[in-house]
Amino acid sequence: MTTQEKLIKRKLGLLELAAYMDNVSEACKTLGYSRDTFYRVKRCYEEAGIEGLREISRRKPNPRNRVPQEIEDKVCGLALEYPAYGRVRIANKMSELYGLTVSPAGVRCIWQRHELERKKKRLKALEAKMAEGGYVLTESQVQALEQATEERKAHGEIETEHPGYLGSQDTFYVGTMKGVGRIYQQTYIDTFCRHAHAKLYLQKSAITAADLLNDRVIPFYEAEGIDVLRILTDRGTEYCGKVDKHEYQLYLALNDIEHTKTKVKSPPTNGICERFHKTILEEFYQVALRRKIYTSIEELQADLDAWLDEYNHRRPHQGKRCDGRTPYATLTESKHLAEAKQLSA
């Protein structure tokens, strides 16, 4: 309950208590209000209902302190273009795209004037804009966008020394596409530099888990001259099984990669990958699925690859070791650590 809602509830309580006791003075004395306040509250309630009980700021805005209208329009446009971005990243985008300097606090002030200060409000505004542009949203997509995602917090800190030292792999259920079926995403993210790979599949199996490594991950690290030493996964059937028969286990053994598993019933152990799934859900899927109706997994994969390219090469990352650099820049600048480890081995 917000502060505004608490104040409204208290004023309503004053009116109800006075009506119940049939004595304004006693009701005001009980709740600590003056009679003048009671009659003012009563008058506002009779004129405008509950809306009349809202606290109105007496502070008058000074238009001279505001940014020019064209800058305000650009900030609002970026809020709809990147609804999952916070005020810091929008301020960075303003500098990157337009060469304009707007503070994060200034971005928030603009958002407040246009009721865009919360991600949920920005998504709703984007939904309305897409509806005007002829985009069609399914009921399930709208419900998915409105549903709040639970924050997953990792306990402790993963030991990682350089790029390739420890990769985190997990399966993410994207949803069901009409005429195609269930879609799963295999995700791999480097725990040191946060460089990520993802590929979509129509099933969740050991073959698909190994295919991501064979098709995307291992070729990338070979091109960079880095060895993948260890991979952390949960205990799902696509990652665990009999070593001599399980395709994923056989692939790891073939490439001399150590396999580490999370603790039982402890998803936060793989928290870096879980956090990346939240990012890709909010910044890619929730936006892409409301803008476009996909008819094939290849079409969705193409847009996913474009987003991953943005994430790895142009999107500043605020995580540990990145410090505002992109994941790929962090990888290239830390490559000497991996090379030194390989030489010493």
Strand order across the largest sheet:
3-2-1-4-5
Largest sheet: 5 strands, mixed
Which regions have little confidence, pLDDT < 50, spanning 5+ residues? 137-145, 147-156
Helix content: 40-55%
**Helix count, per DSSP?**
14
What is the name of the CATH superfamily of the largest domain?
Answer: Ribonuclease H-like superfamily/Ribonuclease H
Can you walk through the features of this model?
By secondary structure, this protein is of the alpha/beta class. It has three domains: 3-53; 63-135; 167-344, Nucleotidyltransferase, domain 5. The protein has 14 helices and five strands. The protein has helices at 3-21, 24-31, 35-48, 69-81, 87-98, 104-113, 119-132, 139-146, 206-224, 247-254, 271-291, 297-313, 327-333, 335-344; strands at 167-177, 181-190, 196-201, 230-233, 258-261. The chain has a five-stranded mixed β-sheet, sandwiched between helices. Helix 4 (69-81) crosses helix 5 (87-98), helix 5 packs across helix 6 and helix 9 packs parallel to helix 10. Mean pLDDT is 84; it is low at 137-145 and 147-156.
Question: Secondary-structure map with pairings?
Answer:
Layout: H1 3-21, H2 24-31, H3 35-48, H4 69-81, H5 87-98, H6 104-113, H7 119-132, H8 139-146, E1 167-177, E2 181-190, E3 196-201, H9 206-224, E4 230-233, H10 247-254, E5 258-261, H11 271-291, H12 297-313, H13 327-333, H14 335-344
Parallel strand pairs: 1-4, 4-5
Antiparallel strand pairs: 1-2, 2-3
Index terms:
345 residues; 10% strand; alpha/beta; 5 strands; 3 domains; Nucleotidyltransferase, domain 5; 52% helix
Give the structure's gist in a few sentences:
The chain is α/β, with parallel strands linked by helices.
